[in-house]
Amino acid sequence: MSRPTVAEINLDAIEKNFLCVRKMARGARVCAAVKADAYGHGALAACRAMSGADMFAVATVLEGAELREAGIKTPILMLGSAAHDEEEVIRKDIATAVCSTRYAGRLSKAAVAMGKKARVHIKVDTGMGRLGVQDYEAPGFACAVASLPGIEVEGIFTHLPSADEEDASFSTNQIARFVKVTEEVEAAGVHIPIRHAANSAAIVNYPQSYLDMVRPGIVLYNSYNGACLSAAPCFRQAMTFKTKIMFLKELPPGSPVSYGRTFTTGARALMATIPVGYADGYNRLLSNKGEALVRGMRVPVAGRVCMDQVMLDVTRVPGVSEGDEVVLWGRQGGEFISVEEVASLTGTISYEVTCSVSKRVPRVYVHRG
After folding, report:
1. Per DSSP, what are the bridge partners of residue 20?
2. Which residues are catalytic?
3. Residue 47 CA to chain centroid, in angstroms?
4. Of 151, 137, 147, 141, which is closest to residue 96 (Cα–Cα)?
5. Whole-angstrom Cα distance, residue 169 to residue 27?
6. pLDDT, tens digit, for every residue of 124-163?
7. Could you give all domains of the chain from N- to C-terminal order, each with its CATH number?
8. How confident is the model over 326-339, as pLDDT tens digits?
């Protein structure tokens, strides 16, 4: 803790965001995505803040196993494949997506050998082009998987990649196709109790996609200001990325700052150096573009972001001193820098911004105020 750079995680915000989704879901189950260490917020802490979730979604066997070893008893769904880790996924009681008979067969063989059941969710591709069987293959595939010994077909799902776009036609068509697929699977004699399709954007924009379960992700951790989500309730940003001024220095006019001399002072300037850089997850693309908050005022990033340090022009901040708090995103006083703003400056999405905050940045948790 010698460096003051921390990611402060507001667990109250995560809890409130989850409860907001729960209310919107109209009785459908809620599978909270905690993959990628809960989008950089800390998976175990997020799970505990969302203790009312019906299921948690992870991306890998290791992510699910870590939660089990930490005492999480809630059902866990691995959205990807556990190829070559069939025994571990069964041992840790983690449900897994299936979209190939070969993989389903390996799960069946492992489950029978272990005297256990392998819980699976059939993945159907309705337009993502990633994992999943084609919709017309789904009934036959479901019958084949359901007939395997040791296999329990617990769910069937798809993914909606365009649910946050203004043109609703693609997502509406996807939802209709998926519902038709589930009806065909049922007609083929395979009853699957959990149908799910709705991601964060679909939860806001497509109530018809709720079905038996919804899968919120980014809205659990962040205020989502997408153009198509203007009707969304006020989801709150849970992460504040902050540090402190470690050094102040006056520079005369014409002084270059940082690598490549991409910034030069036009007049006498007061420059603050802060102990954070791209190795911590503060993107180098924020060089000469990003802003931070010091004493409730926005100040610009001066020059290129370094691996471990960033320089800020604090010339106009009254009374600024070494040790002052610096907020890179989050709230300070009456000012606020959103994760979306940072993402826009770097040409990416808010998911990547929070996921990029590195492991060397301690997570500090705030709960119940």
Report:
1. none
2. 35, 259
3. 13
4. 151
5. 26
6. 999 999 999 999 999 999 999 999 999 999 999 999 999 9
7. 11-222 (3.20.20.10), 239-366 (2.40.37.10)
8. 999 999 999 999 99
